[in-house]
Write a structure and sequence with these properties.
Ala_racemase/Decarboxylase_C; Alanine racemase; Lyase, Ornithine Decarboxylase, Chain A, domain 1; isomerase; disordered N terminus; PLP-binding_barrel; TIM Barrel; 27% helix; 382 residues; binds pyridoxal-5'-phosphate
């Protein structure tokens, strides 16, 4: 090993790469489908939580999910364009969205208030809607004060043949902590919302409140369907269940240098080497989704050993303290993986950056090459 070795070894030509393990997604889906009292909706918003919306959708449908959920209608179109014909629900759309096309393409839409209801009802076609009640987050969904009038208006639109109310949905704000009293309030408010809808003459077949955490921990929230996203890709916000992470991020060391003790590293000289060591340069930074906030805490795995990331994580690169022996350029660094071989996990990165795993997996940048492993056998889905 010289101070500035240049010969590549290991995996010549390797680039930063994100491997997606669809077998893991399949296993997680089967576990969740098994736990859910009702149907399982695979939520594949945000490009399937960064794992590829189509791949996650197909894998989930082949392993027990019966429906798909997304936020925007644009996400719904791409699933339909790809030939997926299963029931598909979209929520969080602006009032002036293209609800006529939603009806024409059989995309069900969430309705969180009277303005949305009017827009959906006025659009051509007879859209299938899920009325969305705010179960206590003051976020998406109808305010309880307006719920009864929303239900009555929806019933009138239904009688006029403008819409079909096929569902009522809510979302829990604290389901990651089963003991939080906010859960009981949310369940109670949802039960009240269902009663109110019924009293207005609505007969929603799909009644859904639980996401991943409540699907895993709280059968009282299950009703007729669970909407799960995080759990499909191995994230359990309730920390109750062992799910399988599906992402592995690797990159080559592009340069190695030997430095003296006291060498400042990176912007602001935020780190100085404590002893003579080797520094490895890895071409991944915050533009690729590695949070700058993890600087000074993060580790990566090199040749089976965890090594500290030193200095500030930059936009395109980070520096690893490789220790006294160093490695040759071209050596593969595992930034995170399932953790089975001692490598850091997405959960580790989330902890180092004071965030949640969701933010890490949805944030991996577009210049990282993606490779999907183990495309499952697909049954006919149309
Ligand atoms: C994202 C989302 C889900 C999925 O939640 P997970 O905790 O990721 O399973 C369910 N419902 C709604 C309304 C969502 O926005």
């Amino acid at each position: 090993m010289t101070g500035l070795a240049v010969a590549a070894r290991n995996d010549p030509g390797a680039r930063p790469r994100l491997d997606i393990d669809l077998e893991a997604v399949g296993r997680n889906t089967r576990l969740l489908a098994d736990r859910a009292a009702g149907e399982l909706m695979a939520v594949v918003k945000a490009d399937g939580f960064g794992h590829g919306a189509l791949d996650v959708a197909r894998t989930a449908l082949a392993n027990g999910a019966t429906r798909l959920g997304v936020t925007s209608l644009e996400e719904a179109w791409s699933l339909r364009d790809a030939g997926l014909g299963v029931p598909l629900l979209s929520w969080l759309n602006p009032v002036d969205s293209d609800y006529a096309t939603a009806a024409a393409r059989d995309v069900e839409v969430a309705v969180p208030g009277l303005q949305h209801l009017a827009a959906v009802a006025e659009a051509s076609g007879r859209a299938r809607v899920h009325l969305h009640v705010d179960a206590g987050m003051a976020r998406d969904g109808a305010d309880p004060a307006s719920w009864a009038s929303l239900c009555r208006a929806a019933r009138r639109a239904e009688l006029r043949g403008e819409i079909d109310v096929v569902g009522v949905m809510g979302h829990l704000g604290c389901a990651d902590d089963l003991d939080d009293e906010c859960n009981a309030l949310g369940r109670t408010r949802f039960a009240w919302a269902l009663e109110t809808a019924r009293a207005c003459g609505l007969r929603p077949r799909d009644r859904h409140l639980a996401a991943t955490a409540a699907t895993l921990t709280d059968p009282r929230a299950h009703h007729t369907m669970s909407r799960v996203g995080a759990g499909l890709v191995g994230i359990d916000p309730s920390r109750s269940t062992r799910l399988q992470p599906a992402m592995t991020l690797t990159a080559p060391v592009v340069q190695v240098r030997r430095v003296r003790a006291g060498t400042p590293v990176g912007y602001g000289h935020a780190h100085r080497t404590a002893a003579a060591t080797h520094l490895g340069l890895v071409p991944l930074g915050y533009a690729d989704g590695l949070p700058r906030l993890a600087s000074g805490r993060a580790e990566v795995q090199v040749r089976g050993v965890r090594r500290p990331v030193v200095g500030r994580i930059s936009m395109d690169q980070l520096v690893v303290d490789l220790g006294s022996r160093g490695v040759d350029p071209g050596e593969t660094v595992t930034v995170f993986g399932p953790g089975a071989a001692g490598e850091p996990t997405v959960a580790d990165w989330a902890a180092w950056a004071d965030t949640i795993e969701h933010e890490i997996v949805t944030g991996i940048g577009s210049r990282v090459e993606r490779r999907t492993l183990a495309v499952p056998h697909l049954r006919s889905l149309s």
